[in-house]
Amino acid sequence: MIIAVDGPAASGKGTIARALAAYFGLPHLDTGLLYRAVGLTLKRAGGDPASEADAAAATGFADGVLADPELRTEATGALASRVSAHPAVRAALMARQRAFAHRPGGAVLDGRDIGTVIAPEADVKLYVTASPRVRAERRAVEMAGRGLIADVDAMEAEIRARDARDMGRDHAPLAQADDADLLDTSELSIDAAIQRAIALVEARVKRHHTE
Ligand SMILES: Nc1ncnc2c1ncn2[C@@H]1O[C@H](COP(=O)(O)OP(=O)(O)O)[C@@H](O)[C@H]1O
Ligand SMILES: Nc1ccn([C@@H]2O[C@H](COP(=O)(O)OP(=O)(O)O)[C@@H](O)[C@H]2O)c(=O)n1
């Protein structure tokens, strides 16, 4: 079974994808990490995120970068959002993501274009979202947990800017697939969001069996 989980920054898609993977016994790939690794590698090489050639050169990043704590900063998220708009970057990362999706037994992938581009044939697609304010508050809590101070208003502005870039780009923009189930987590606790996600997956699986 392939489960595609897409949605904007800090919507809870990673939390939900990890929980679904554990519940259904499937491997999980956070595809955002790949774009973050490209962004960070480009920055360290002194590249220009607006240059498609510089960004494409950074797709050959060393796998060790995927464990770098700097990947998780909002600054790296913003860089990832800039380099991910280049078609050459998206193309270079596609085979790796598709191979993961098609592991025997299935997989859970989360990102922006899993249900639309990477695995349009996924058995189940969730589009996870939450209001920009709620997402900014969650990120601020997350940063506080790492000893960093976050201004919620500034975080909300960054999140809105990233949404606009990710939804407005020409190639693989963030969008809910026609056949995706919408899961708005604005008013749900983590546990409630996970339970709702499991119920949505099980309902889809049941529907596939009776079709
Ligand atoms: N339903 C929820 N309620 C409260 N906090 C949540 C919820 N879902 C996720 N979080 C927290 O919000 C932050 C962002 O969640 P994450 O799953 O990393 O989002 P994404 O993968 O969409 O960026 C994390 O600190 C996570 O623990
Ligand atoms: N499948 C994906 C995943 C991420 N991305 C890009 O990478 C950036 C970082 O993604 P992420 O999933 O790590 O970000 P968060 O939602 O965790 O903040 C996004 O803003 C997108 O621009 C993408 O284009 N396609």
UniProtKB/TrEMBL annotation:
This is Cytidylate kinase. The keyword Hydrolase does not apply. GO terms for cellular component: cytoplasm. Transmembrane segments: none annotated. ATP binds at G7, P8, A9, A10, S11, G12, K13, G14, T15. The keyword ATP-binding applies. It comes from the Bacteria. Keywords: ATP-binding, Cytoplasm, Kinase, Nucleotide-binding, Transferase. Belongs to the cytidylate kinase family. Type 1 subfamily. It is an enzyme of class 2 (transferase). Signal peptide: none annotated. GO terms for biological process: pyrimidine nucleotide metabolic process. GO terms for molecular function: ATP binding; CMP kinase activity; dCMP kinase activity. CDD domains: CMPK. It comes from Sphingobium fluviale. Its EC number is 2.7.4.25. Residues 3-202 form the Cytidylate kinase domain. It catalyses: CMP + ATP = CDP + ADP; dCMP + ATP = dCDP + ADP. It is found in: Cytoplasm. Pfam families: Cytidylate_kin.
